[in-house]
Design goal:
This protein is α+β, with helices and mostly antiparallel strands. The protein contains 30 helices and 23 strands. 50% of the residues lie in helices and 14% in strands. The longest helix has 47 residues.
């Protein structure tokens, strides 16, 4: 007797029913296969892109057995952990001698007998490119040796074989514009090399570096610097050794301990892959167990998997319900022939198993195919080559099983409903009447209220577990309210035209079909909006805390010392010819009193000083610094603290960097052009003040009654003979009250400038000044080629000038994350809306036939499908947007709590924790996606209808 009576027949019926309703079956298989595809591709990509320990060692060692390093301490005993990341000297070791007295270590003498080795040493250098010059790291290493296979691979040309040859990574060649056969010159020693090959580092595809034979770069450079004092010596790294141990033995732990006795650190492949027991590691006794549980990570993974299963069930469930409804006569015949309710349920559940298995197989197969197809693109994005396509069979089987279980779960509710239906209703085609539950919406509202409260509590208390739990509870509460919300949609169509009115009423009448699709869209959009909101808020916080070195959209030409003044005319021409300059330049200068401290800095009190004296008082002193600051911080909210931090008095304490060749007073000599090009102050009154000799003060906290106090100590050094003859006698200290034009407070944050002084005012006060550079407005951010070109052109003028641009904030992958989230939610929305539209067409075929019979135009069928799709997509997106704000806001409250704690420890620490809506993402989801879904549904729906002949 079969242990599963009736299941064989149930599976046979389900298989034939799936083959008969090909469209509906394809929809279900697609919805199950898509998540399985995504998870399979993600698993394969993650496992393949995440290097194993062996692959990490290959990236560092190639095929060598170990890397030996002299730590520069001399022949003293070391102790290390097996991976060589942690090391130190023994506690009972004598004190280290001074650096100059330390004896060198004979590192090759510590190698196991029978070993062979390669030496490796790197040096930063400035080299010529096709566009100009660029900074790069040159490594002296015989890259043609088989020991380096796996770490460095040749992609074009040949490896260097002679002293005048060099190889470069593909990334460097692309950025520099060079080709194989071009000449590369190391600036300084002016050593010339021929680029003979292109190589790649599989673990660092974006690395921009060069490779030459040992002894062909650093040694000649050192010789040139000894012969010519104008050439700076190379700043080379320490020499390292890549060692291949005796055949069949490698480098063992006893070999490592022996090298440690001589002061040498060893990273051995054999030891890292098969570490010795802790009892054999001297340093292990000092180390704490850093192993921690990954319970939070595991809980997050389980939660994500559960939500994914829930979403598939919500999407696929209505398809099974419609399928069971369309097969109700067949199920009624099963019952009329003596089949039990359990056997009826078995037929529907078997349909879920059949389609779930089909979706799982299709998803896994497609996941493998897409991963292989897009592997080069993924490698370029991650910046490292896959060692191999890593497949973990049990994980793949688990993903496939998840698809199968999801199909069965999606069919569970329709199976229960089909089992409860009477045989008479099934055979006559009556649907019966079933009222919506009145309890579920009440429970849903309570769950929303409790979930929001728990999430907010978690945010305020800093407990992310409460945040996650409360957010999930609130989202489940919204799910419980969706049938009621869908029911209310029907009342909105009373005054609408025909097709949107029918679409709304159809959605309200068939809630069992509409509500799950809306819920699925809501779940996808809620997750995307939550992450997008948190990401955009964090980006806004990072942008607020960023301290730029220059105003954005400009390039600054600066001198390094007083000798650079003579090079400025040619350097300015170089900038104007090679950068995308968009307007007239603004020249800047520095001002000082007495002898120049940039020249006469060796003696104490050997040069003059110039100070912009800051008044005391409420409007001038920052209350967040000094006595009483911490007590004040305890009473401040984040918004109040932000206002104080942005006040001119505190802004000056917070932004202290200077990017120009000036002192910490940040007084520059300039004219009205500096206001418009750099300060971005387009004020005729300020320009007029400068023209009349009145300084413009950007930080109002230094002004009192429209004046500033300028204190100058005119101290002249005896070595400054020219000025000393003009100013004999004792040093003179003067204090001047200068009338100034005070700019609005928002200009206090202008980088590197506190006050602009006209040249005539500096001369009138007896101060010294000289030009130090120019500011150029730019049309766009300079490209790599433009930067290399301008650097090369400036170097031709001398070594005393340089160009810099604003250190713009690196956004990282935030923009890509927001785009991916929007695309993900958009795809799910389109899919859910399409499935619901397809199901409604299949379920409402009789209604469409009636419409055509009473004379409805053919276009009604097309527009009805479009509006049905629009209703589902728009409702789900709007609900998902609201639901997604709960976890995002709660998590930002957690961040706010942490920021306030840090601010109260250090009042000058920012506590700004904004909540920023990702309006681009929300707009795309709320406007573009629903409209696109409706248009696609309308376009893909046939306006023709073949009238079916009624039976009987």
């Amino acid at each position: 007797m079969s242990p599963l009576p009736g299941w064989r027949a149930a599976f046979r019926i389900a298989r034939r029913d799936a083959a008969r309703a090909k469209g509906r079956s394809a929809l279900v298989v697609a919805m199950i296969a898509l998540p399985v595809l995504g998870v399979t591709a993600a698993d394969l990509t993650y496992r393949s892109a995440l290097p194993t320990k062996a692959e990490e060692l290959t990236a560092e060692l190639g095929s060598a057995d170990a890397r030996y390093r002299d730590q520069g301490l001399g022949p003293v005993r070391l102790e290390q952990m097996p991976d060589a990341n942690l090391w130190g000297t023994y506690k009972d070791s004598p004190d280290l001698p001074p650096q100059a007295e330390r004896k060198p270590v004979d590192v090759p003498a510590t190698f196991p007998k029978g070993s062979r080795y390669l030496t490796e040493r790197s040096v930063p250098a400035s080299v010529t490119t096709r566009h100009g010059i660029a900074d790069a790291r040159i490594t002296e290493l015989r890259v043609s040796d088989p020991l380096l296979r796996g770490r460095i691979e040749l992609t074009d040309g040949a490896f260097p074989k002679a002293a005048g040859e060099i190889a470069a990574t593909d990334a460097f060649i692309e950025a520099s514009g060079l080709s194989i056969g071009d000449r590369v010159t190391v600036r300084g020693p002016q050593q010339h090399y021929t680029l003979v090959g292109a190589v790649e580092l599989p673990a660092e595809l974006k690395e921009k570096s060069l490779f030459a034979l040992p002894g062909t770069v650093i040694a000649p450079w050192q010789k040139s610097s000894k012969d010519d004092k104008e050439i700076l010596p190379p700043q080379a790294d320490k020499l390292e050794w890549l060692v291949q141990g005796p055949p069949g033995k490698g480098v063992t732990w006893p070999d490592v301990l022996a090298a440690n006795e001589k002061g040498v650190l060893v990273a051995s492949r054999q030891v890292v892959l098969d570490p010795p027991p802790a009892s054999e590691i001297p340093m292990a006794a000092q180390m704490n167990d850093f192993g921690g549980g990954n319970t939070e990570l595991a809980a997050a993974g389980v939660t994500v998997a559960a939500m994914a299963v829930l979403e598939i069930v919500l999407l696929a469930g209505p398809a099974f319900a419609v399928g069971a409804r369309r097969s109700r006569r067949q199920l009624g015949l099963v019952g009329s022939c003596g089949g039990s309710r359990g056997q009826v349920r078995a037929v529907v559940l078997a349909g879920g198993a059949v389609l779930g298995a089909g979706g799982a197989v299709a998803g896994v197969a497609a996941g493998f195919g897409l991963t292989v197809l897009f592997r080069p693109m993924i490698e370029d994005f991650t910046g490292n080559r896959f060692g191999e396509l890593t497949v973990r069979p049990w994980e793949i089987l688990g993903i496939a099983a998840l698809g199968l279980v999801t199909g069965v779960l999606a069919a569970l509710a329709p199976a229960i409903v089909a089992g409860r239906q009477s045989v008479l209703e099934s055979l006559t085609g009556r649907r019966g009447t079933r009222r919506s539950s009145r309890v579920l919406p009440v429970v849903g509202v309570i769950a929303i209220a409790v979930g929001v409260a728990v999430a907010v509590y978690g945010g305020i208390s800093g407990d992310t577990t409460f945040v996650a739990g409360g957010s999930v509870l609130a989202e489940l509460g919204v799910l419980g309210c969706i049938p009621v919300i869908v029911g209310l949609l029907g009342r909105l169509g009373r005054r609408l035209p025909l097709t949107p009115r029918i679409a709304l009423r159809d959605a309200a009448r068939n809630r069992s079909r509409t509500a799950p699709a809306v819920a699925a869209v809501m779940a996808a959009v809620a997750g995307s909006v939550a992450i997008a909101t948190y990401t955009s808020s964090s980006s806004a916080e990072t942008e607020y805390r960023h301290q730029p070195n220059l105003t954005s959209g400009v390039a600054a030409l600066n001198t390094t010392d007083t000798a650079g003044k003579a090079e400025l005319p040619r350097a300015r021409a170089a900038v104007e010819q090679n950068l995308p300059v968009s307007g007239d330049r603004a020249d800047i200068g520095r001002v000082w009193a007495g002898s120049d401290c940039f020249v006469y800095y060796e003696e104490e009190n050997g040069c003059g000083t110039l100070e912009l004296v800051k008044p005391t008082g409420k409007a001038h002193s920052c209350p967040l610094k000094g006595e009483g600051a911490r007590e004040l911080a305890l009473r401040l909210s984040a918004e109040e603290h932000k206002r104080l931090m942005n006040s001119p008095a505190c802004m000056d304490e917070n932004f202290t960097m200077t990017s120009f060749n000036i002192d910490s007073n940040k007084i520059v000599v300039g004219d009205a052009a500096l206001l418009t090009s750099y300060v971005k102050l387009d004020d005729p009154a300020a320009a007029k003040a400068l023209a009349e000799g009145t300084p413009v003060l950007l930080n109002s906290s230094y002004a009192k009654d429209g004046e500033v106090t300028l204190k100058a100590a005119h101290i002249y050094n005896d070595r400054d003979r020219k000025n000393r003859e003009l100013h004999p006698g004792k040093a003179v200290t003067t204090t001047e009250q200068l009338k100034v034009y005070v700019a609005p407070d928002r200009y206090a944050s202008t980088p590197s400038v506190r006050m602009i002084m006209p040249q005539r005012t500096a001369d009138r006060l007896g101060l010294h000044s000289e030009a130090t550079g120019s500011i150029y407005p730019l049309d766009s951010e300079p490209t790599d080629a433009e930067r290399q070109a301008v650097d090369a052109a400036i170097k031709l003028t001398g070594d005393n000038t340089y160009v810099m641009t604003a250190n713009s904030l690196r956004q990282g992958d935030d923009a890509a994350i927001l785009l991916i989230l929007a695309l993900f939610a958009g795809v799910v929305t389109l899919g859910a809306a399409a499935i619901t539209t397809g199901l409604s067409k299949a379920d409402a075929e009789a209604d469409l036939t009636t419409l055509s019979a009473v004379g409805a135009p053919p276009g009604v069928r097309r527009s009805l499908s479009g509006f049905q799709c629009l209703v589902v997509a728009l409702t789900g997106v709007l609900l998902g947007t609201v639901a997604g704000l709960v976890p995002a806001v709660a998590l930002r409250l957690t961040d706010l709590r942490s920021a306030l704690e840090k601010m109260r420890e250090d009042p000058m620490q920012s506590a700004y924790t904004p909540i920023v809506m990702p309006w681009e993402t929300v707009g795309l989801l709320a406007l573009v996606v629903p409209v696109l879904a409706g248009l696609l549904a309308a376009a893909l729906t046939s306006s023709r209808l073949t009238l079916a002949r009624r039976a009987g």
